[in-house]
Design brief:
16% helix; single chain; alpha+beta; 2 helices; five-stranded mixed beta sheet; 41% strand
Length: 106
């Protein structure tokens, strides 16, 4: 499972069901992190790839005991919504939240 720290504002919006996507910049760091959790894909991150489902734990903080939400997500490329933290016109890795599986340490 991929564990990603997020700010309280975004954590609370995901928890309430208001925010349906989380964004990460398209950079070498995130490409390598996501690639480790996907089936082998020859063109990952180069514009020619399919959307994949992964399990992600969004953690509000860096401690193991920090509040966390375990979600089933779809990873894709695209433009995000400004009200959910994306910059206008910028492309991101988008983690589309398909289902909240559990919430811990509230």
């Amino acid at each position: 499972m991929l564990v990603l720290p997020i700010k309280k504002k975004w954590f609370d919006m995901i928890k309430s069901g208001e925010k349906k996507e989380e964004y990460r910049e398209i950079k070498t760091y995130w490409t390598s992190r996501f690639k480790n959790f996907l089936p082998r894909v020859s063109n990952f991150g180069k514009g020619k790839w399919i959307c994949f489902q992964i399990i992600v734990i969004f953690r509000n903080g860096y401690s193991y005991n920090s509040p966390s939400i375990k979600c089933k997500c779809k990873l894709k490329l695209g433009h995000g919504k400004e009200e959910w933290g994306a910059e206008q016109g910028k492309e991101y890795y988008i983690l589309e939240i398909l289902e909240v599986l559990s919430i811990q340490n509230e």
